[in-house]
Amino acid sequence: MSLIVTQGLTKTYGTQVTALHDLTVAVEPGIIGLVGANGAGKSTFIKIMLGLIAPTGGQVRVFDIDPTVDPDRVRAKVGYMPEHDALPPDVSAAEFVTHLGRISGLPRTAARERASEALRHVGLYEERYRQIGGYSTGMKQRVKLAQSLVHDPDLLLLDEPTNGLDPAGRDAMLALIQRIGSEFGISVVVCSHLLGEVERICDSLVAIEGGRLLRADRISAMTEASEVLAIEVSEGTDELAAALTALELPVTRDGRMVLVPLTNEATYDHVLRVVADLDLPLHRLDQRRHRVAELFATRETADA
Ligand SMILES: Nc1ncnc2c1ncn2[C@@H]1O[C@H](COP(=O)(O)OP(=O)(O)OP(=O)(O)O)[C@@H](O)[C@H]1O
C-alpha cells in the first residue's frame, strides 16, 4: 500500500493563487524529501494531508484514509512538526510535550512517560525541566520534533525542520531525522527548499514547482549512471583531451574531468589506449552519475 496518494490535487487560495495544481503522485514508505522553492506549495500539501485545510479539487489519501473526511484518524497516525513555532516560553519542554500527548488522547501517566521518551530521543532529556524560553533555536526545533513523536505515529510530516539552524545544527537535525526514520521504522516526509539537505538523508524525493509535480522517484533512480564517461588524469589533461578529439570523439571538459559520450563498448578501449599511449597517470575512469540537482537545472534551462 502506498503511504500517500493524490489524484489531481488542487488548492487555490481566493481567485488569484493556485498553490497546488493537479498534483498526482503516489509516495511509498521511507524517508521522503518534499522539495521545492519557497512558495512551491509544500506547506499547503502538508496541511491538506493533515486535514487542516480542504483541497479545492482532486483526491488525497494518507494510509488509505481521506483526511478531508476523517482527519482525526489521519492525525492519530501522523506526527506534524510545523514550520513556524508558537512554543510557550514559560513552561518546560516536559510539560509542553506531555500536554500535547494529552491532547492526542493519551492518559496522564502515559503522556508523561511518552514525553520523556520523545525528549530523550531528540537529545533533550537532561534539559527537559528547563523553561522553553531559555532554549536555543536548535533546542526549540527539537521540542517541536519531540511533540510530533509523542503519540507514537507511523508517519512524521516535518515542515522545514532545519529552519534557522546553523550548519552544525542542520547536520545534527538531519542525522536525528534519519535515525528516527530508521530506528523507529516509521516514514518521514521532510519538507525543504534545500535540495542538498534532503538528498543526503532521503530514500525518495517528491519535487514540486509552482504547485505542479516536477518528479517523484527514488534518489537511486535519479542518480543512475549516465551515458557519459568521466576521465580524470593527475596530469596531462590537455594532452588527453587533444588526443581524444583527434579520434573524433566529442570531448567536453568539466573542471579537471574530461567527458566523452559513451556511444559504444569501444569508447572505453579508445580512452584506455590513449591514456596508455600518452603514459598518463589515470586517476578516475567511470560512467558519470546524474545529480539530483539536474532536476531543477534542466527545468531552468528549458524555461530560459
Ligand atoms: N492562506 C493563504 N492565503 C493565500 N495564499 C496563500 C495562503 N497560504 C499559502 N498561500 C500561497 O500559496 C502558495 C504556496 O504556499 P506554501 O506555503 O504552500 O508554499 P511552500 O512551498 O510551503 O513555501 P514556504 O516554504 O515559503 O512556506 C504561495 O504563493 C503562498 O503565498
Automatic annotation (TrEMBL):
Pfam families: ABC_tran. Keywords: ATP-binding, Nucleotide-binding, Transport. One of its GO terms (molecular function) is ATP binding. Residues 4-235 form the ABC transporter domain. SMART domains: AAA. Belongs to the ABC transporter superfamily. This is ABC transporter ATP-binding protein.
